Protein 1
Amino acid sequence: MRGQHASVSYKDTNWRIINRLWPYLKTHCHRIGLALMCLIGAKIASVGLPFILKHIIDALDQHSNTHSSITLPLGLLLAYGVTRFSSVLFGELRDTLFGRVTERAMHHIGLHVFEHLHRLDLAFHLDRQTGGLSRDIERGTNGISFLLRFMVFNIVPTLLEIGLVVALLWWQYHFIFAGIVLSAVTLYIGFSVFTTEWRTRFLREVNQAESQSSTRAVDSLLNHETVKLFTNEHFECQRYDAELTRWEHARRQNRLSLFALNGGQALIIAAALTTALIIAGKHVAAGTMSLGDFVLINSFMIQIFMPLNFLGFVYREVKGSLASIEKMLELLAITPRISDAPHAPDLHVTHGDIQFDHVSFQYTADRDILRQVSFRVPAKQKVAIVGASGAGKSTLFKLLFRFYDVTQGEIRIDDQPIHRVNLHSLRRAIGVIPQDTVLFNTSIWENIRYGRVDATDSAVQEAIRLAHLDQFIEQLPNGRNTLVGERGLKLSGGEKQRVAIARALLKKPPSLIFDEATSSLDSHSEQVILQALQEMAHEQTTLVIAHRLSTVIDADHIIVLAKGQIVEQGTHRSLLQQHGQYHKLWTLQQHTRHDSKPALP
Ligand code: ATP
């Protein structure tokens, strides 16, 4: 039974998201510990500052009241300078120490997601939208950086600082000041949390609109050739414009809601500060408080509210980061449909005998693609599959390569069911020359070497020669270092196909599959390459999927597929004698080619 991709309802609470990040952090416990010590140092220094300032002012004020000559409280002033410097220094040290932890975590989680994406099956990759996906990953990793930096080093320490200041105010002065700070902080946090929750949906909409417009742009640019072929530039711009308009609207709503949040926060702070200063001012006027006390209360209030103002921003951003990380973790939660059975052994290819045993397959439950297909490709023999377009020929290779699992039946290689062995060993044992070759945007040489990344230069050169690419490469101004362009678009169809052949030859697998591998070549090149492949094929089990029957007349066995079922099979000669579908196809193709007569080998 094929599974479904785990539905993306990832209802992890925020704490569970943070919990999932913990494994990426815990290897750096010592660094985190040191950073926390610096943080405590910075906080103690910053809480001490207003006290020193108070004593400086009182010292200066006393002298002015008594009209005696003013002696500078030099010690206090120096202490003020040193404390201020330490608070900044500790803060910088903390950031430097923790920066490495954050970057490491981003590195590892980014790699983990990348690995996971490569583990996901073909069906996922056919459904995905590259632009949006890369944006989600980028936002997710940036979100981690933000979350770690601000959650650990802003929210928690700010709350600590507030506690410390409230205790000091209560202990040193009237409880009213502590009361004002506490109620303002509570109101501020309550208001921020409530408003931020309300705003989250606008933020999500912005993220979504951003991903969609980016998906649209990437998709359109990747298909730029098709756009030009149909002169649809205007249409593409219109569609992109619609996405951007959505994005703009989402951003506007987001900004307006931000205005409401910032405005409300500023109002709470201003009201609390004013009330506290009025009360302190009264006390100074009544002589129950010194000028230094007034300044101290003002400094404490500002010192608390400044990070609190920041706290609002941080809470907001942390919520946003959590939403981005959640989106990235959703990717990690998708389970691949195709995966190894637990402790699956390696495939051991002794002869290279391939067997399809009553294989049925559906891509979607409502449509049969293959029905009860059984055939064997005996070791080191060449079997060809022919049939009309859409008959299910390429699907056979996708099943053998385990891009998909069969719905019914079994495929075996040397009597080992392919779903029982591990995927890596299975795929290593099969070389595929696909119908459409997509190349990496690097040099021809690198693209060929991709077939076996540790191949020696002479092995790559040999593969180039066998695929008849040597002459072509020699005539290029940059030779083997010529860049092939995005997806290999700077090469012709036939050249790309020869690169694919060279790659597969370099891989040297025990079994080879040609999926219409020479369809883009001219007749002459095709013959030359087929000749070379024939020589090599003696060593390998070969499955050839072909439209042009002339390319498979030498096959040991030919299977005719129609609507997902085998309708005829035999050698070229016996099939022609049957006067069935194969004969019909052959005659049709011979007529179309004009130049060649039906040939019996
Ligand atoms: P051609 O000669 O044109 O390459 P084929 O015989 O190789 O055709 P397949 O590529 O095997 O045909 O496709 C068989 C059928 O399966 C087609 O009708 C195709 O539309 C359908 N199909 C292929 N891939 C998918 C997919 N990923 N999801 C759903 N249907 C698919």
Protein 2
Amino acid sequence: MPGRQSMGLNVVIMGPPGAGKGTQSDLLAKDRDIPKIATGDIFREAIRQGTPLGIRAKALMDQGQLVDDDTVIGIVQERLTRPDTARGFLLDGFPRTVAQAEALDRVIAERALAPLVVVNIDVPTEELVRRVLGRRVCTACGANAGPGDSTVCGKCGGEWIRRSDDTEGVVRSRLEVYDRQTKPLVEFYRGRPTYRAVDGAQEARLVTAALGAALDAAAAVGIGQSA
Ligand code: ADP
Ligand code: ZN
């Protein structure tokens, strides 16, 4: 039976805006030594560089809308062909629609990759709004700060700013978009033996522990499935 390394660990971290996907994904990807692929980060980088993709993405992101499926799917498909994904990958912010999830399933099937492990981080809506409005990101290294943290980045000393899509109006539309387009994905994945949900409303380090345990349990099932 192949071990986890040779099978690869292919993870999707799901959850609404403000669930803590970014922070938790960073920790998890480092811990498991697999690359984190965050579509939101890819778009923010394109915006910083002023590419045509960045210009189009900014208009949509600042209204809380999604970038179109074909564009996002193309970017992720290309990213998943790079050699650093051979032992696995962690997707943060993708898929966000059923069409994106179906495209990802096709990649997994075509390349006979290990079954996706999908972990959903659950947090009540009002808590999400509170978190997103309090959140700051570092202009230099992209790290996240929670409410009440200091005014400079603890990692690199860079300046904290609020993301341009973290205003009350935009957050409400991002949550609406989430309910309409991304929540159906929970139904899409829920029946799979490699799907897990964790409580994201607890302290961050408890979420980290719960995610790690969910990942191991689901990955063990996944290895059994494809062996
Ligand atoms: P959040 O913190 O709200 O989860 P992200 O940083 O993941 O946000 O993404 C920010 C924005 O980038 C989204 O609101 C959306 O406009 C765009 N985006 C990111 N990932 C996707 C995707 N998979 N499909 C479409 N749009 C996306
Ligand atoms: Zn920083």
